[in-house]
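Exam revision sheet. Question 4 asks you to relate a sequence to its structure. Input first:
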Amino acid sequence: MSEKEAVTEEPTTKKMKLNENGTESKEPEAKEATSKEENAKTEAKGKETSEPTPEAPDSDWPESWIMPNDVEDQKALNKMEPNEPIAPEALRKLGIAYWKMDAESFTYPVKSVPWDPSKAVDPKLSKIRDDRGYSYADIITVHPDHLPGYAEKVKSFFEEHIHDAEEIRYIVGGSGFFDVRDTEDRWIRVHVKKGDLMTLPEGIYHRFTTDEADMIHAMRLFVGQPVWTPFNRPCDDHVSRKHFVENYMSSSESTAPAEEKKEEETKTE
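Answer key, structure tokens:
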């Protein structure tokens, strides 16, 4: 390279911005890096907030099984001999959703009708409320000391029926049974306990009872103004029942126990 070329060649490095004391200033770059980091955190938090709360893994779902059509004591376990357990996947195919909640760290009144769901201090409950648009809640305790006419009420809860809206129950204490009809019109008994939050889809045939402990403390949630009207079976022509059949029964697979399905597959090989 000639002396002239060396003198006229443009420098390849950027000119440094100097402070008043003559040292290099890196403040703009530092501010820019901090700003990008803050934006990234904000975007990640927004994404986390917008995603619905994931349902519980299979290992957390309540125990469920096939029960006989006719039972002498509605509050007993009423398992078949031998027992025929039902997997969570079969319940999900019926439109049932489930979350495992922390019912130990938060307290709720014995009874509050209504109970403002915005008062929820459990962040997971608040998130599910917002995800699903639950604007109404109440809290009841089904127990001889807290529900007038307890015996008759529990008997009436055991009548097979549907609702024209989703049914949401968060069990904050005690235990009981939800029975739901599967795609083959068999009864599946689901044993719900403290910490279980479960939803039943609009139009599913179901019923409820306390178990032998005779106590369940539950929060009922609802979108809009609550309508607790039951439509007892038969009501196959009801629009909600038709909606359920179309969405969950028309192309549903059998909910037969895993052992039974395996035997059927072996026979067809």
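Marking note for examiners. The first strand starts at residue 64 and ends at 67.
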